[in-house]
Amino acid sequence: MSNAMYNKMWHQTQEALNSLLDKESQNMMESQSNQVFIFQMLATFYIKYVQIFRNLEDVYDQIVHPQKRILIRKILDGVMGRVLELKNEMVELELTEFHYFDDILQDLKLAPQQLDIPIPKYFLKEKLEVIKGREKILAQILADTGLDIPEKKYTVKGIPLEEAVKLIQIAERARQGRLRAMFMKQIFLQEYRAKQAKILGEKVADVGAAALQIQKVWRGFHQCKKTEKQREEEMIFLGMKPPPLFNEVSATVIQAEKVSSLRNEVQIKHEENYKEALVTIKDDLKLIEGLDIKENLQDQIRHWFIECRNLTGTFPEYPNVEEGGSAIIFSNKTPQQVTEDIIANQEEEEKNKKKNKKKATTSKKPKKEKEKKGTKEKNKEEDEGWKMSPSVFLSMMEEGNNVYKDLWKNKDESWNFPQDYDPELIKQEKRKELESEIRVQVDELMRQELKNLKLAVDREKEPPVKAAKKKGGKKKGKKGKKGKRGKKDKDLTADRTIESLYKELVEEGLLIQALKVNLSDYIGEYSYLGTTLRQVSIEPMPSLLDVRQLIALYGILPLGSATVHEKAPLVKSLLLAGPSGVGKKMLVHAICTETGANLFNLSAANIAGKYPGKNGLQMMLHVVIKVARELQPSVVWIGDTEKTFYKKVPSAERMIEPKRLKKQLPKILRLLKPDDRILIVGTTQRPFDAELQSFCRVYQKIILVPRPDYASRLVLWRQIIQRNGGIITNALNISSLAKVTDGFTQGHIVEVVQGVLTDRRIRQQTYKPLTAAEFVTMLTSMSPVYQEEEDSFKDWYAKTPMGKKRALALTGGDTEKEKDKGKKKEKKGKKEKKK
Ligand SMILES: Nc1ncnc2c1ncn2[C@@H]1O[C@H](COP(=O)(O)OP(=O)(O)OP(=O)(O)O)[C@@H](O)[C@H]1O
Description:
The chain is mostly helical. Among the domains are: 115 residues, Methane Monooxygenase Hydroxylase, Chain G, domain 1; 30 residues; 140 residues, no CATH class; 207 residues, 3-Layer(aba) Sandwich (Rossmann fold); 75 residues, Helicase, Ruva Protein, domain 3. A 6-stranded mixed sheet has the order 1-3-4-5-2-6, sandwiched between helices. Helix 17 runs parallel beside helix 19 and helix 24 crosses helix 25. The protein contains 30 helices and 6 strands. It binds adenosine-5'-triphosphate. Adenosine-5'-triphosphate binds next to helix 19 and helix 26. One of its GO terms (molecular function) is ATP hydrolysis activity.
């Protein structure tokens, strides 16, 4: 697409964002009490923000104007954060991680695909070189240590010469045998035909009857083909089958891809030009306008000296550096206002000092009062109903939106066809920068001038230098703080470089190479009946794509964007629980691939015997967290994490000390700050074996990964067969296959498909199409996930804090609340009557 198209898209998206921000600001004020209404409102906002997010992501990826990109990036981060905030609100309201929007989607005329959370391409693009470099180093270390030997399916074994000769002989004899058999067959057929000719030769050949026979066969065959074709066309016409070139990538799409990669090149070029221009334009401005600015400033300040003296009889005090120098005087204020301000400030400071003293003497009382106030406020909130919690990202988006309206909305860009940087905007920005730089120099000069003036005119002595004292005092304070901090986080490896620690972790097998899988490779289908089922009080099973969305929201977006991680509701740890083969590990690898994160493996089996002892363990965790923090984003994966929290360690596993990490994990979580982009992900097949309390304390978010439902199995079978080289024909009834494989997981499906589709079978497909029976035969030896197992996961989840809360809300909680409300209303009514 063209520059004009992307610009148009941006303007449209900004319009949509603008109206959404207006609605949000209205809603912030109102309080609501109807839960259904609140959820509908939140969900609508969420869906609309996701649409804006999708468009902005596209625009940011393709627009080539460097200054527009800076603004779009800011808004994009804001929108991402807001989406996360709204999700958090919905979770707190509904007490479940999964939400279904099918009814709202219908109202908004959107397809479920439009709810997919996009993964901004800038996550990887901006760090491409760093990631590649790191991958190279990792591969090098693995090669040096011999840890990189890939798992080979078929190991090649050498065989003795005699055996090899025998094998070749067997193959050669078989070939000769086949040839001989073919000759014999031909001879036999020749003889047979000759015999037949002899028998028939006696009869008189009826040419007419023969022609009729041939015609009959040909017409039958011809009509058969024709009917088949007509049936196919009818199916396509009815929409029961896709048209023949439906799955083919069209030439236009290929062309579009080429254009977008070209645009990326232009983007990089414009970015470089812009960075150069920032330096050159500033230098030019300094040369051309620097002197003028300096003289203007000096004149202004001199004028202020004289005005002040004329009005007050004395020369003013020059604002010191910390206050901002002369800049504060000329922020649209008259000199008198400034002096009044200074006097007012001094008075306020004195008042504050007095107040603080009073507070210090009566420090015990306010605590209780505060507590009381707190409870009162809570009660008030409950009475008033639900209100949207304050947002960090709204102001960020509004700021961006205002800049858009002021600068870009009505900007005439007819001169800027290639969409390169706008020098005028840089000049405006740099002029301000230059002015503040020059102002510092001018302030120095003018301070001296004022001193001289005071000496000459008022014959004043030099005032004591306050600033210097203040500075000294502050510095001391800061030093004290730093000292304390230093003591707290002792660096056990201060003498070592990050590179050496990185190498050590790779050699120990704690830092591993993430598999290259994208989140989009996690196949599944949407759940189309979520809301309908909930309306009839049936809790729907989440679909695979719901899980995928949660991974994008909780794992990928915060890890990819530093701003989002810092300000959005923080998720430090994530638990993926589900039966074997539902793709838990795949999701962990996908998080790493999409964000370019390092992957640390702290599974109980992997750390067994490494860094022994208490000190060793501390050292290991210190090194892991240090490297993870320095080379962020990072994912710390704990596979089979229930082992770390075993209620009772099985005797067979006692040797590997599975519970080593148990006490350390909460400590690590406490150490992680919002600016550390580190995510702890645990995966488990048997969460019920773990001690619930400590388990749930460590894992902030718990995601149950379900086995695939019918719709998901249908797409899984189709896509996995195609990915492995299979061709889907009418002979392969995928629907029945999906139906009879209820209970089997993705892992089973992958295994079966890979087992059936050998190289030989793939080659045979042209004359022997695939059938469902082939796959089913292989499945018979595998055991599916039984209903009981699935129920045990559900039961376990109901015992987690979130599950408990939801159960309470669904059964007793709601009715109790309503009763309370009813009572309150009655009381109110009585009071009013009395009045
Ligand atoms: N939604 C999916 N789409 C495509 N492939 C999938 C999907 N889910 C899982 N797979 C594939 O299934 C196989 C098993 O997945 P994985 O090992 O991640 O499961 P797991 O839940 O971690 O299993 P376990 O609990 O036994 O360790 C992998 O080859 C993975 O690529």
